[in-house]
Design brief:
This protein is of the alpha/beta class. It has one domain: 3-Layer(aba) Sandwich (Rossmann fold), CATH 3.40.50. The chain contains ten helices and seven strands. Helix 7 links the parallel strand 6 and strand 7. Helix 3 packs across helix 8, helix 3 packs antiparallel against helix 10 and helix 4 packs across helix 5. The chain is globular, with a radius of gyration of 17 Å.
């Protein structure tokens, strides 16, 4: 039992949930390591959505709303941490939702798809093929899903698939707490924020953003600036560290 007055209550509850999801086979054990790495960067952010992240989240909404075939790619960690938030975002922007895994088994795919459906997500299914130029199981996707997408949202992504999608001419939106990662640096747009905070902000922006603001945000996308701002926002919390 985790006492509700524990100063790290929310974080510990999330960890326990991920561990239980790993025991069930929904989350890969390696995904727990990835979560811990992200959590360390969230400490540096102060576990808050920063100004630069809000700009990125509004820009993500603009990109999803103006896409002809947007796709939200979901892995085990994403489903375990934010399945309801994925459902809300799908309803707000009309994106296709497709499961894509590095540690892929048909059983895991079915479990994750089932969890998503239980929270109201319309999951894109059908025959998967090795369509992405990768040598591992992230290459599996649907021809009329991610392969045909013009904009792909890749929460909690690995860098090589992000690079492959960019090389295919796609606009890639990443959610990554590490602004130094290969994913963050490769993506068209990186949101340096925790996924359960980022997705509701994108959803909120989808319902509030005007056509003029969509155009302005899309024209002014500067991922290098946003990543630099994220790093600055981290370091500004520790003014004595630069002395």
């Amino acid at each position: 039992m985790i006492p509700a007055d524990h100063p790290r209550y929310s974080s510990l509850v999330t960890r326990e949930h991920l561990v239980e999801s790993a025991r069930k086979g929904l989350v890969a054990w390696e995904g727990l390591i990835a979560h811990g790495r992200g959590e360390a960067f969230d400490y540096l952010l102060g576990e808050r959505t920063t100004k630069s992240a809000l700009i990125a989240e509004k820009t993500a909404a603009a990109l999803l709303l103006t896409a002809s075939h947007p796709v939200i790619s979901v892995n085990g960690n994403t489903a375990a941490l934010a399945a309801p938030e994925i459902s809300h975002l799908q309803k707000a922007c009309g994106a296709c939702v497709e499961v894509n895994l590095f540690h892929r088994t048909e059983k895991r795919v079915e479990m994750i798809e089932g969890l998503l459906r239980d929270t109201g997500v319309e999951v894109h299914t059908g025959e998967a093929e090795r369509l992405l130029p990768l040598s591992h199981d992230r290459s599996w996707c649907r021809r009329d899903g991610m392969f045909s997408a013009d904009v792909v949202l890749v929460p909690l992504e690995d860098g090589d698939r992000c690079e492959a999608l960019i090389a295919m001419g796609k606009t890639v939106i990443a959610i990554d707490l590490n602004p130094l990662s290969r994913t963050a640096r490769s993506a068209t747009l990186t949101i340096v924020d925790e996924i359960s905070r980022a997705l509701p902000q994108i959803t909120k922006a989808c319902s509030e953003i005007s056509d003029a603001e969509k155009d302005r945000l899309i024209r002014s996308v500067d991922n290098c600036y946003l990543l630099s701002e994220a790093i600055r926002e981290m370091t500004m919390r520790f003014p004595n560290a630069m002395d």
